[in-house]
Amino acid sequence: MANVPNPIAIPKLSKDNFDEWQVHIESYARTLGVSAALKDNYDLSNVDDAKDKAAFWSLSNVMIVSITQELSHLMKQLGQPDERFHPWNILEHLRREIRPHATAQRHALKHEFFRLQLENGESLSKFISRIDKTVSRANEAINAALQAKGAQQPKCQPWLLTK
User: Fold this and answer.
1) Which of 14, 32, 33, 87 has a CA between 20 and 30 Å from the CA of residue 135?
2) Mean pLDDT over residues 56-73, rounded?
3) pLDDT on residue 82
């Protein structure tokens, strides 16, 4: 079996530390000698050396186990296992999904929206007003993300409640 170095201290990936996590992952890939695995055109089928293959899979494993439970659902969205476990695909998927300034806000707003509930003694109109404010903030975050990606804004607000 190939001798793969023990991983350096890689922080658990959360919605707030993608940039720091990525630097640690890139450093670990260099330590293993497989930094090319973090590039789009890296093809493992062209690698003959068992040590390099072991290092590739070690990098993939470290990336996966360093994702917090809170974000583990992102790994299920990646597709087929061959694609899902390729370090480049993991990194690019997480990069698209985790934007410290946008995605964290969208996730927080989504959770805030789903946690909304009528409080004791609260009038229905006040509760609806809180829902409307949360939905408006969510719409702003969604539209900002669409603009950042260069996508066209939807003609209607996807979450907007009508009065």
Assistant:
1) 14
2) 87
3) 66
The domain boundary, picked from 75, 97, 119, lies at 97
Contact 157, 128 (CB under 8 A): no
pTM, full prediction: 0.56
- pLDDT value for 7: 56
pLDDT band, residue 25 (cuts 50/70/90): very high
Specify the DSSP element, H or E, that contains 125: helix 124-148
87 found inside a domain:
yes
Give kind and range of the element (H or E) at residue 95. Answer: helix 87-97
Domain of residue 67, residue span: 18-97
CB 94 within 8 A of CB 19: no
Q: Which two tokens stand for residue 152?
A: 């066209």
